[in-house]
Amino acid sequence: MSGRRPRGYRYGKWHGGPDPLAPPYDLGNAVDEIGDSVLGGSGVREALRELLRRGTEGRRGLDELRRSVRERLRQARTAGRMDGTLEEVRELLDRALDAEKRELFPDPDDSARLAEAELDAVPEDTAGAVRALKDYPWRSAEARQAYEQIQDLLRREVLDSSFANMKQALENAGEQDIQAVKDMVADLSQLIDAHNRGEDTDQRFSDFMDKHGQFFPDDPQSVEELIDSLARRAAAQERMMAGLSAEQRAELQDLMAQTMSDMGLASEMAHLSDALRQARPDLPWGQRGQVPDGEQALGMGDATSAVAELADLEALSSQLSQGYAGASLADVDEELLERALGRPAVDDLAALRQLERELERQGFLNRSDGRLELSPKAVRRLGATALRRVFAKLDATGRGEHDVADAGAAGELTGSSREWHFGDEQPLDVVRTVRNAVLRTAGEPRTDRQRQVRIAVEDFEVVETERRTGAAVALLVDLSYSMALRGTWGAAKSTAMALHSLVTTRFPQDAIQIIGFSSTAQVLRPETLAELSVDTLQGTNLQHGLMLARRFLAHHRDAEPVVLVVTDGEPTAHLEDDGTPFFCWPPMPETIARTVAEMERVARTGATVNVFALDPDPGLIHFVHDLTQRAGGRVFQPDAERLGEYVVADYLRTRRGRRAR
């Protein structure tokens, strides 16, 4: 019995985190959807954003979530009018004055007439009337009660506009309740001041909540949460005030000032407002925004809540739009989303975030300097998809004979063999491979059970073949803005991806380079091409594209040179002698001359130049016919949706002709 100790396992309760038994996250459909957008002409970021807008199977996307938020926003705009407190104070004031005058009218005493004169002299504006009657000796009990209701209402509404849900807590409040509010505001100012100085601690916040937690039913879990809630409400209060008429705003501000002064809170509330501004300067302080405008009259507290909800819904709508620079799903506030649409909306957002993370984690997307790029893995899949679509069309039309059994790498056998290297596609020499394994293990002791031959990597040999002539293919793709305007850019991009995939996977002895040209030309890696949108710069600089193609062909002198050009317009740009690009429409004779001269240089390399013209304009067709005749090539005029079919079939036809020689 072996002395090795058995491996031990421990089992316990799962405490959350990723489910270890969950199946791998399936990204197949998502990658294909992104691929469809990319092959349609979009960039990678645009394609991912489009997928996130549409959503995944069974989950709402950003567009549907935003539509729901916009509907909530529409409803919130009709919540009510902002002048409810003024209206209610005016009604109570009129009731008090009417009751007092009824009480004074039957009294024949001169003092009653003086009192009536005092009431008649009360200012017309609500705030002035409330101030003027502050010390008035009411004779009517009904009038006194109405005026006291005004005082109570103002205390509750003014505080409720700064601290949510304060109105109910202070109904019929006594001196002790008011003192508790004053103590809370004083301690709150000290807490926020300490936070702004960077001196706040968890213990300080905990002590504050233990003492004053009854004033904050939303139960903030940190000083940051507390400040965020208060600052948002303070900003909403300013926004609410800005939504009133100038007269209403002046009266309400006057009433608020009186109330704060009567409660002994004027200086503390002013200090608190300044501290909140300092803590959250990013909020839209003092900015005028949307305010509710419905039939129901809202008090100050409810009006502030309604304005705060509007502001939150507007911010959430903007976050879900992702239409600003640097937008990210991390910007979407889950708390706002849950308040607006419920927990299922947060789950939908989480699914979109997981999709974005998995695309990176599983290697389909890379993030470089904050930009998303398709990984080589995704580009290979994209090229294969584009190629599969092209072959499907070739099958449907009966063109091409594209099903090649070998990879095109092997020629006639030479009778010799060599060591296998990674990437070799030559036939395996089985006899020599087994012989190498036998010789390598000949000296090892064997039992009756170990008579099989163990083959290692170093034992493999492949048969040598004559090297077959390959092709060097330069594919020039027009990137000018007219390609997008005519709707041909997506087809050109998909065609380039398909041809690159075909050459690199099925004909590895061939070389291919993709060259994009607009005002200037550039060599495009497959990853760059996948991300690329058309160039908004003017110009079709075919001359520069041909120059780059000629340099590429010079590096593959032993290969048969092939140049394929996809364009929708005559050359309108060229490079000056100092290398600067020059553009002119209609084309200048010099542009045409330089382009023709470069084509002749390409022709002298022995290259076949075929042009795929995507615009039936007679001027373009005449020009490219003249151009291709100089290089022994041809002109094709395919519809955009058949471009890939034409280009791939032409490449395959060229290969068959080369192999037959």
UniProtKB/TrEMBL annotation:
Record's compositionally biased regions (Basic residues): 1-13
InterPro entries: VWF_A (IPR002035), vWFA_dom_sf (IPR036465)
Location of the VWFA domain: 470-652
Pfam families attached to this UniProt entry: VWA_2 (PF13519)
Domain of life: Bacteria
SUPFAM superfamilies membership: vWA-like (SSF53300)
Region (Disordered): 1-28
Protein name: Uncharacterized protein, contains von Willebrand factor type A (VWA) domain
Taxonomic lineage of the native organism: Bacteria, Bacillati, Actinomycetota, Actinomycetes, Geodermatophilales
